[in-house]
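Lecture 7 notes. Example A: sequence first, then its structure tokens.
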Amino acid sequence: MPTLCILPMLIKSHPQCEPCYLAQAKQWELSAALVLPKLLFVQLIPRLYDVTSGSVSVGGVNVKDYDIKTLRDSVAMVLQKNELFSGTVKSNLQWGNEHASDEEIAEACRLACAAEFVEAMPDGYNSRIEQGGTNVSGGQKQRLPV
């Protein structure tokens, strides 16, 4: 998995905001201890905002060097509070791509480390999910939307 490296930068996230400067930064991990909100850092990766000095790198490559469509197609954000809907595992996963094939759904679950528990469910990908995911564990509820 590519690592995120954010070098010293000047960030101006909105025209009415004062710029923030991270003078001592060499490399940051996204953690609760950051001075700036994690959401702002996440918005820098797909270039929803650009740094005005310094750089943001993914996999050792400056995000400005990526094709914007390729970069954005390669980035996903998973919120802390996820929602599952009444239906099946498959129907919940198809919210991301309504035309996803069974193979694509299985691969997405494998990548999200969800395939093992989904395939162990009585009806696999056709197993029922209750509204809000009340019939799966908290960890499973977080993995499925990934």
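Example B, a different protein, same format:
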Amino acid sequence: MTITVEAVQKIFKKMYDNGDIYKGTYVGKYCTPCESFWTESQLVDGKCPDCGREVKDAEEEAYFFRLSKYADRVQHLLEDTDFLQPRSRVNEMVKNFIDPGLEDCASAVPASPGACRGLRSRPRGLCVGGRPVQLLHGAGLRQRPLQRL
């Protein structure tokens, strides 16, 4: 199945209009060489867990997916279905993510304004409701559940 840019734009805009995606700011420790954000608890001896280099305090504008709104549904999916295998991981997921409060996660960052100008050599990102947006891939989401200001 091929997902078109237009389909992604439509889905993102609908989620934004419904309040499931909102613009905010996240803060954290940033490793410049790895281009990754980390929380304090992820650091190893105060350094990047991937490369071992120094990190710096940083913040960045982002679009967040309101995952917290769906905490009850996620908990039901984990506890009352066979969605997560092996079952031994269910308690771990509930204890580490649901019980402390499921956090919203960054799903996109503002992109180059060229994404909304219809440039032939398409810049990274796409235009959603007149806003240039660059979607984050799964690996980016893993590193971006940081505090909102």
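Note on Example B: The radius of gyration is 17 Å. Helices lie at 5-17, 71-80, 88-98, 138-142.
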